[in-house]
Write a structure and sequence with these properties.
Blueprint lengths: L5 H11 L18 H7 E6 L6 E7 L5 E7 L16 H8 L1 E3 L3 E5 L7 E9 L4 E9 L11 E6 L6 E7 L3 E10 H7 L1 H9 L9 E5 L7 E10 L8 E6 L5
Length: 247
Amino acid sequence: MKKFLVLFAAALMMAACGKDEIIPDPVPNDTTQDPVVVDQIVNIIHENIGQEEFKCRFEKADSCVAYWIMEAEPGTQEQFLPMFGFSCIEDAVQAWGIKCVGDTAYTWKELAPATDYVVYVVATTATGRYMVTDTLRTASRGGHGESVITVSVDNITATSARTIAMPNEETALFKDLVITCEYFNEIGADSVRSLIMNDYYEHYSSDVWIWESLDPSTDYYFCAMGKNIDGVWGQMATTSFSTPASK
């Protein structure tokens, strides 16, 4: 099934965004928290908060030697600390975050609308290590009207096809799947709707995906459903396609 291996990797990669920018210099391990220093060591300024991205600007104090930045949904990273041998979230931010040595700005993308995110900053001085956090919420998406998804399929081969799902402006989120016509008819449309609504993967602005490992000479449906900002699901959109025989 589409993206079935991504679930675990996504939890890690969300925190590891920008890892190639990390400079693995040694840093002090003293985590003494001085409230006065913490408030001033790095200031976090929100900029351009959108539906699927937000930008923050970071201004450091003169005493700050370096700092690491990371975002994550609240409470999602703590479960991975023991797995990677970290004793605290500060260790994880330094390992997975982006290292900065001066004032900078960074935009996090591919986020979920109407969702809380914590911005973590771990800063070091000549004598200690300090953590600053801030929480913001991405903008809501969708309207109160009916969610409508437009679906199409192209680039069909014996074992693959590209699907395209485009939501209207009323759609807050949508989900989609490819299913054989045989199985669709076996379980019925209501069960297919249930499969879509309970699928893990959510999409927002669009979903363009190449499905691999399809069977040759097989009839398929590409199906999608979305819901509006009130959580009301719209009608299921479907389109059929057939893979040719393998050569």
